[in-house]
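Intended use. Records like the one below are meant for learning the mapping from a protein sequence to its folded structure. Do not use them to infer anything beyond what is encoded.
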Amino acid sequence: MQNLTARYNYIYNAKVILADQQEALAESYPENFDQILPVYLGPEIDENFNMARPPAQSGGKSLDDIIKKAQAIILEKSNSNYIDDAYLLLGKAHYFKGAYFNATEYFDYVSKAYQKQTMVRIEALNWKARSMMQLRRLTEASLVLDTLVDALEPIKKNQSEPLATIAQMCIYRERYPEATSFLKDAIKASHNTQHKIRWTYILAQLAEQQKNYPEALLNYRKVEKSNAPFEMYFNANLNRIKLNALMSGKTTNKQAELLAMLKDDKNTDYNDQIYFQVAQSLAADGDFVGAKKYYKLSIQNSSKNQYQKGLSYLSIADVHFKHDRDYLQAKLYYDSAVNTLPKTFPGYAVILKKNQNLEYLTDRYKIIAREDTMQMLAKLPEQSRNDKIQAMFKPVQVAAVDNNSAASTTFTGFSNTDLNGTRAQGASSNTFYFSNPSALSRGFSDFKKKWGNRKLENNWRQSIRSSQQNTIQDVVAATGVPANPDQNVASTGDQTSAIKAYTDALPTTAPQLAKSDQRIIDAYYEIANFYLQELNDAKEAEDVYQTLLKRYPDNNHLGALYYSLYLINQKENPAKAEGYKNSLLKDFPSSVYAKIILDPSFSMKRNAMETAINKQYNELFDLYQQKNFPAVIMNVNETMKSNSDNYLAPQYDYLKAIAIGRTNNVDSLISAFNSINTKYPNDLLITPLVREHLAYINEHLTEFRKRSIALPDFDPGESPFAPRTTPVPIKTAPVIAANTYKKPKTATPVETVAPVKTTKPVQVAEPVKTAEPVKTSTPDKPAEPAKITAPVKTTEPVKLAEPEKPKPVKIPSIFSTAASATYYYVIDVADASLTLSSSRFGIGQFNRGNYAGSNLKHQLKEFDNDQLIYVGNFSNFDDAKTYAEGITPQLKQIMKVPANIYTGFIISKENFDKLTNKDTLNKYLEFYKNNY
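Structure written out for the chain above:
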């Protein structure tokens, strides 16, 4: 009796529900015919193994009903012969729910518990392999399939599904000939017509992938003549036309045949694919103007197929990037592509990287546009200037609407009717569109299909905005004025303040104009570097260099600019290169660039010299820590005699001065400090610190006079003018006190203190010492020829579909951009074997000289082969950024380790606590680059 009820009351009904669910999945599955189709279907999951979309439903029966029926058999029909079927149903139900981990466990149990039942075991192994493949556990799935192949040998029937699974694994491994063989065998063994049609289409795709065009054409024709779903039939027809043209060499016939398909009403929903194929054909023929036209038509007609729209965005972006070299336009289309294509798209990471690199370029063009606009406004008469600024900040108001009609609805974009045309009865009625979750969901889905992922902003329909609109957006970002025009009108006070702030920022004085010009110069120079170094586009680089030379012939990058132009023209125009070389040697004879031209091995020699200087300094610092002060003085004297021009000379003299103060009276110490102040007036690391020391001595001069030794015993790792609070290296992120960071003071020259005679030594209270910061340095090597692009190119007005302007895509990460109460500046030294005491001492020197009284502390965190020096606390990102901008140019002098092994970055405390190994560090550095 249990067998009877188990089979007909539970197993039969559960299999009916399962078949309905599979049919519903097949109907709703988003097929992508531009890639090889999956041999079998399974719900998609995201990177967190969650369902990418809700499971398909059919007739009100759900997969949970199957689970309940299977569990009832296991619990209530334990003596029946259908326990194995029940466990298989449990596994399949979880499989189609996207719970692949659970499904794997059920199938694994069946394969082990019912080894003697060959067909049951084969079915369990087959579905177990499929579950693992859905989780991309391909190595483990391969082992299961090896077992499955062995189990298949003795049987002669029911082989189609296992063979299809093996074929799918071969496709994942890109072993297409093997996949073709297994799939042909699966077709022969199958009795399911729809499976045979699908697998035949995949055979055609595999043959096309292997450039076996006759075989591909034969299989596409088989699909066309079969009872295939219309979308598959349409794509088979499209590919047949493409292959016919490819094999005959008559692309004109192909384009005509494709365009003829537009006349068939059945193809209306697929016009985007037709236009795309026409564009691809034109691009292959070298007609890029025509190709761009049809790519835009494809985008314009992609109302449902977001994947096709993404492909069209990507293809037109590639044309702008590779052929037109119009990188700004390419950036816009790459923006749209990464926001439209799924993250599983092959090469998505490469597209995203290219898009982020081009962001660097467009940001600098925006700087130039903004500064040019502000300079233009600054030159206008005051009244004209104010009128233009008012027009920029105050959008044109729409004509007033009748009050009664305006009050009749809260949102003029829709009427107060639901999707079925029913009049809304009140806010509480679920027939009102905005009170009906189902209607809202459908509306959002339809909007997304038509418009894609749009950023919530003013003028969201516009893909390309005028330069004035872009300027207004930059102003909004800089001044904090809300982007919503309604909000602008409502908050007149905020708008007035923003207008005043913008007006005050105009470069109306000579110093302000000079700063504005420098921002333009730097932007052009960085654009040129980007063209030359990242895009390898020497022609564009030269154009931008020439633009910079024309606008600012006496700019501060002239030496590097001449050197870059010299390198660019060395092969193509030797005479021109010689001219730039002569200008460089004449105007900048002592520059690094001139030395490299005269001695090509100069860079190598300089690197070796810097390594030797750092090593020598570290040895000297060891003597200083050992309090061997006479040896410190003697070694510094010898070093300065042999190499007085080395870049660490101020630091050598500082150690000597402290050693003098530790062994002599205050007269000698003051004399040594005064010597540093005189010899290195423009030094930004040591001289500000020495001035602080002289100011302190001057303030406590009476006390110092009483000392026989100017500086009493102190910890060499600390400032001799501060309490002993040397930070201790730690393995984990410490708890740090509330931030008391203050912005750096501008160091002012201190009057030279005359030497005085000392009497009795007297201990004097010392000011609180500020902790030393961390370094993030970049190698100080001559920049390679940088590439500067010509001013923004104006492209032909776009009449068709244009790229959207979405928010930049950010890859999901364990790290967060959320605002924090605590930020650190971090220097990562990628070598645990190095001693960083001298480098940390340099950080302390920088902090005490530039951030006195800010209570900055620097500490050490170590893991794997990395040492992280982190400085804090900073209460916000901008303070940390200001600090980073100040210390970065000094890192070459501060860090006594090779420049290529350390990197600086800013991080919140919450993100810093997540850094536990090299892998998370690398992930954060990528996150930092993409988001900051």
